[in-house]
Amino acid sequence: MYSLIVVPPATAPEDSGRRDRLRLAPGERLSFGRAPHGNGLCIAHDGVSRRAGEITAQGAYWLLSNLSREQTYVVENPEGAGEHIKVGPGRLDAPVPFEFSRIVLPACGDLLPLEVWAPCHEHVRLDSGDDGAATAPAFSLDRSKRYFAVLAALCEPRLRGAPHAPLPTVEQVAERLRPVWPAASRTTVRWNIDYLAVKLRLKPGPENADPGPRLNGKKESLVSLALRFDLVREDDLVVLAAPLRQEVR
């Protein structure tokens, strides 16, 4: 049973349709670069170091060594709406926690993606028979309410695979929500953004609030918090296609 699958980058247009997948068993290593040692992965690009790096399979996760002298490598989680880690020059055996990853190699103006699939992670089975009081939720969100649909609409571009996409404007959010919320408007969307900022404790309540930040700052803070802590996931975007309850404006 293989632990890791590595898909090489396409260094020329004709390579895009024939990238062979390399499989690593637990404990195996794969070197990569312009002239890697042994049976390593050759990346034919003048901007890639001769010995650029090394991937090591380790059961349910993997390690990345950056053997270059100057380049920092970025390991992205394509399913994490911008989640990434950086591995600096000379860093050995940096653990990568993502099941699906993309190593981005900067190469003379090009960004070469080296894709890595790790095995599905194992998770502890929660025992529902624990005694005692339940732990209070860190963030209390009702996915059937309009404020959650507003939050989902704000997060949607980045959850759809564009982690650096600009956030939608208030008008764009209102237009996006009108099929499921016909009365959506700039005013109601703004109200829900302010409500979320208070609910998620990004600002104090209205009775003691100082003049708040600009709306764009609040939107960015809300989306950043929601994506960092998985308050909105890609499968939550279904709320944008379902009728919304009316308890919140």
UniProtKB/TrEMBL annotation:
InterPro entries the record matches: SMAD_FHA_dom_sf
Name listed for the protein in its UniProt record: FHA domain-containing protein
Organism name: Streptomyces werraensis
